[in-house]
Amino acid sequence: GAGVSQSPRYKVAKRGQDVALRCDPISGHVSLFWYQQALGQGPEFLTYFQNEAQLDKSGLPSDRFFAERPEGSVSTLKIQRTQQEDSAVYLCASSTPGSTNEKLFFGSGTQLSVL
Amino acid sequence: AQSVTQLDSHVSVSEGTPVLLRCNYSSSYSPSLFWYVQHPNKGLQLLLKYTSAATLVKGINGFEAEFKKSETSFHLTKPSAHMSDAAEYFCVVRGGSSNTGKLIFGQGTTLQVKP
User: Fold this and answer.
1) pLDDT band for position A82 (50/70/90)?
2) Residue B100: which of A35, A43, A55 has the nearest Cβ?
3) What are the residues whose beta carbons fall under 8 Å from the beta carbon of A99, sequence distance 6 or more?
4) How far is B15 from chain A (nearest CA, A)?
């Protein structure tokens, strides 16, 4: 596709349920990032992949959060036993090789609501 | 550690008048700074970036920003606001090394443009 694609666009989960959020980066982008944006706040870094390698996961808030990118393309962010504080927009971004990761292309996000 | 502070959570201007969105940064070394814009239901888009070249940076849609080391500021300006400029604006600094692409976002400034 022409841009970063995220699915689903909206997700409603009951507290305690597991959810999986998908990100399709721009074809050829080796770097992929996940951010969490709470209502009225700026995005906060969660994790970073270079190809299939997860090089930085320092932003993951708890061990309930897990991200993978097994083939170096599509990535999935999984949240286990969701809590109300997990409600946020989850943004995925990818960047061009050799750009020193300066220009990120963001998807429209997945809005997660935990009831 | 790197951080940015956006001094106004909300700015309101009339169409055709100048725009000023203020941002101060904190960095232990020469920073890489960015402005991103977020329109409703759209992905974040890079407006401009500063990477230690010219201190006056021109971006898309008539926006520009000036890096002032003495004031640790990176304010965003536009001579004449357009209705389509209404959006959320984020001042961003790169945290850590360029290999991680870990961008640190400010809290955001909502720009309202009145007819």
Assistant:
1) very high
2) A55
3) none
4) 24
